[in-house]
Structures are given as C-alpha cells and as structure tokens.
C-alpha cells in the first residue's frame, strides 16, 4: 500500500492544467480553462478546469475531481495505478508500507539501456557510417542520444549482468517473452530514445541496418509509452515552440534531427502513425502555428488531408507543406537547401485550402456528375467548420469548381443555441454566498453564527452539503461556475444582510397570518422579528434563535 505521506507529496507536485492538457485540448476561459467533456458526448465545451482550485468539473454530466480522479476516469485506472502513473510522469518517488507492498516499477531500466545503446553506437562502424551518410553531425548524434541495439542475447546478458529487473524491462517494452524465452525488442537497430512531456524517457524507436523486414519499429504499448500521444523530439523542441510560436510536424526521426541541425528547432515527428486527436492537446500547448510537413507520395498526401481536416475543425492556425520529387526535409538539409526550406515553411497552404483542393482533385470536374460529387463532398466538409469559415470558403469552392456561389450550401448548425430546459430553479445570490465560503473556508465561522440551511430558498441542500463536508467534490460545480461573482468579505456581509432580511420578512409575514399560534408567543415573535429586520436594515449582522420559529 502506498503511504499517505508519499501521496501527499505527489499531490503537491501535480498541476491539474498540465495533467488534463496531456489528454484534452484546453482553451483559456477567464481564470479557468475549458474543453469538451471526454466523459459524455458534447459539441459545446462544458468541462472546466480550475488552476486555482486544482479541480475540474463538467457542467453537462457532473463529472469532477482532482488530477488523480481525472487520470483514474480517463485512463480507466485504479487509484494505485493512477498514483503510479502520475508519479512516473512527475518523477516523484512513492513509498510503500512494508506489509502487502507492491514493488515500484524501476524506470532506471530505460535510462540505463539508453546509455548502453549509446555506448555501443560509438563503437559500431556500420551504424556510424549510415548516420553520417545521412548528413547527421556528431553534435546531433549526442543531442538526440542516438544509439545502437545489439543482438538479442547481448541485451539480455547486459540486463542480467547489471542486475536490472527483467520483469521491469519487460513491462517497459525493452524485452519480451516468446516460446524460446526472453528476447530483445530491438535487435541490430539504430535507436532513437523517445521522451514524454515530462522529459523522461518512455521508450525507443529503432531503424534496421541489417535488412530486417520492418524498417522501423517502436516500443510496444506500455504504462508509459503510447505512440498516439507522443511526438518525437518534443522534449527538445518545446521551449523553441513557445518562443517562435510554431511547430513543424514531420514523418520521421531523421527529418526531425536534420531540421534541428539546420536551425529549424521546432520540428517534431509522429511515431509511425498519422496525427490523431490524441496529439491535439500537445499541439495546442502554447497555441503555436502548426505546419504539417509530409512527403509527396500518396500516403503523405492522404495523411496531410486527414490532418488538415482534423486541425481545421479544431480551429488550429497553420498549414501544409508537401515535399515533391521524392525529397524529404532531411534530404534538403543534407543538400544545403536551407534557404529554400525557410521559404517553404514561411508559406504553407492553409489547412482549409489544402483540404478543399484535395477533395476536388479526386474528381474529374469537367464531367458534370463528377463535379456534383466534388461539390457534395466539399459541402460536407465545409459544414463541419465554423460559420465564419463556411462563409469565407464557399467562394473558394465556387471558384475551384467554376460554379455559382449560391450552389455551395452552408449550415446554421454551428450557431444553434442550446437552452437548459431543466425545471430546477437557481438563485445566483445564494450560490455566490456558498461560493464565497468554499473559496475561503474561514468565512464559515461568521456565517454559522447568522444562518442555517433553512434560510436558503433554493439551495439549502448545497449549503447543508457544505456544512457536512466543505471538500465534497459535488460542490465543484459552484466553485467553477463562471456566472457567479467572486465576493470579498465586505460584499459577502452585504449579501448576507439581504438574505437575512428576505428570510425574516417572509417569516414575519407567515407569523402575522398564522392562526394556530398562542397570542403571547405570536406577539413576542413579531416583536423580535421586526427588531431583527430593523437592525439588519441598519447594516448590523445580528443572529436570531431560529428554533423559535419551529
């Protein structure tokens, strides 16, 4: 069992915006961040993350909690598994009770193997010659920690001789087991270590130099390694991405290395897969312009189209670069075409233009039936964009197809306003009072002397919940509600005065028309209530024995 002290230590290291943004696209919204909720389908963002409170809450489905709860729900992990995942992300050591303790995964296995591969590379003439033939400098070899994985038995023996845990090595994707026992995942390959967002090594990519069937292989899926959520070189590029407000997404390891070598140090690469929605949270960091730089073969053109559709629908700024004539960025750097690359990267084709061009080029538009199909597919794509883009690009489609603009149909779906048809009444003033207490619990001492839950007309349940447990996650929706004002102490006192005057005035009315009450008791209550209301109207916060009204 993980000790409470180490859990508290981990929590002190967690930053909820950082944790959530590794899985969701977060957009700034006032003091908070918003996204579409991952726990229920929605088009309008209702998922709010508060960096001040270190919590999240969805106003659509009610999901909420802290960083640990988010990882549990999103990754479908148990509480201990979520703690271990976050601890590995933030390089925090978890301690376990001696009884029934679970051994911690030794992440040093990856670091040690990486050093081993690097050392082997320096002594491997074939690997060095290949890398140098691609134009990669000694500085880049060191910067990107390029290594060489030997025969399988050599890796296994190295792990054993250095007393590294073989079970951990298997869990981390360094080795695997088959019918003939353990074998290395990377055999006679040049290795490229891959780092996560926390700049900790999570796996490897490997390129064969001895003719294996697969030219490139990656680490298998592990607790740390998910190729759909990683970008090669991001650990080295991220600071420059923030400074230059640009990220170049390429297809291969060598493209990234050579582009960095030529000064294009915002380059990254996907890991043998196309861009996916899981990559969007990483690309969103720092809100850079995204340049998708792919090869001009059919696979590259198709991948660029899919990326353009996805990125334009998510309203990313940037565009597409296609490298023709069988050349890629690495080739151009090797050939010294740095200036030409500068020009190319400065003039990408905008995502929407590229997507529309790609769609129309699939059809023979001189044929009316083919032109109709091109128009239909272009329309369908256009409908997935915002109203502004729809209006702007219907002209572009009309020009490309040589048709009248009114034939390009747009939709108003994006402008529909959703109304809450719930019959539940809310009172902003009452919720603001509850929010003020939640944000500064020390105010509860003042409030408890004056009011109880029965004084809230609409939100007595929420106030009682606050009294029972002020840390109740169900109250997160109030803390993160942007419609609610933030009260200072003076404003809170004024609102309490209003609440109390309103409550006692209603009680006075009730007593005045009450027939089944003793005359003396009634007269006494009327006098006390009127006196209280008078004091409150003078700005004096006074208490009242609420039991007298029962």
TrEMBL record:
<comment type="similarity">
    <text>Belongs to the DnaG primase family.</text>
</comment>
<protein>
    <recommendedName>
        <fullName>DNA primase</fullName>
        <ecNumber>2.7.7.101</ecNumber>
    </recommendedName>
</protein>
<keyword id="KW-0240">DNA-directed RNA polymerase</keyword>
<dbReference type="InterPro" id="IPR037068">
    <property type="entry name" value="DNA_primase_core_N_sf"/>
</dbReference>
<keyword id="KW-0862">Zinc</keyword>
<feature type="domain" description="Toprim">
    <location>
        <begin position="245"/>
        <end position="326"/>
    </location>
</feature>
<keyword id="KW-0639">Primosome</keyword>
<dbReference type="Pfam" id="PF08275">
    <property type="entry name" value="DNAG_N"/>
</dbReference>
<dbReference type="InterPro" id="IPR006295">
    <property type="entry name" value="DNA_primase_DnaG"/>
</dbReference>
<dbReference type="Pfam" id="PF01807">
    <property type="entry name" value="Zn_ribbon_DnaG"/>
</dbReference>
<keyword id="KW-0460">Magnesium</keyword>
<dbReference type="InterPro" id="IPR034151">
    <property type="entry name" value="TOPRIM_DnaG_bac"/>
</dbReference>
<keyword id="KW-0863">Zinc-finger</keyword>
<dbReference type="InterPro" id="IPR050219">
    <property type="entry name" value="DnaG_primase"/>
</dbReference>
<comment type="function">
    <text>RNA polymerase that catalyzes the synthesis of short RNA molecules used as primers for DNA polymerase during DNA replication.</text>
</comment>
<feature type="zinc finger region" description="CHC2-type">
    <location>
        <begin position="37"/>
        <end position="61"/>
    </location>
</feature>
<dbReference type="InterPro" id="IPR036977">
    <property type="entry name" value="DNA_primase_Znf_CHC2"/>
</dbReference>
<keyword id="KW-0238">DNA-binding</keyword>
<dbReference type="InterPro" id="IPR016136">
    <property type="entry name" value="DNA_helicase_N/primase_C"/>
</dbReference>
<dbReference type="InterPro" id="IPR030846">
    <property type="entry name" value="DnaG_bac"/>
</dbReference>
<keyword id="KW-0808">Transferase</keyword>
<dbReference type="InterPro" id="IPR031988">
    <property type="entry name" value="DnaG_HBD"/>
</dbReference>
<dbReference type="InterPro" id="IPR002694">
    <property type="entry name" value="Znf_CHC2"/>
</dbReference>
<dbReference type="Pfam" id="PF16730">
    <property type="entry name" value="DnaGprimase_HBD"/>
</dbReference>
<keyword id="KW-0804">Transcription</keyword>
<dbReference type="InterPro" id="IPR006171">
    <property type="entry name" value="TOPRIM_dom"/>
</dbReference>
<dbReference type="InterPro" id="IPR013264">
    <property type="entry name" value="DNAG_N"/>
</dbReference>
<keyword id="KW-0235">DNA replication</keyword>
<comment type="subunit">
    <text>Monomer. Interacts with DnaB.</text>
</comment>
<keyword id="KW-0479">Metal-binding</keyword>
<keyword id="KW-0548">Nucleotidyltransferase</keyword>
<dbReference type="Pfam" id="PF13155">
    <property type="entry name" value="Toprim_2"/>
</dbReference>
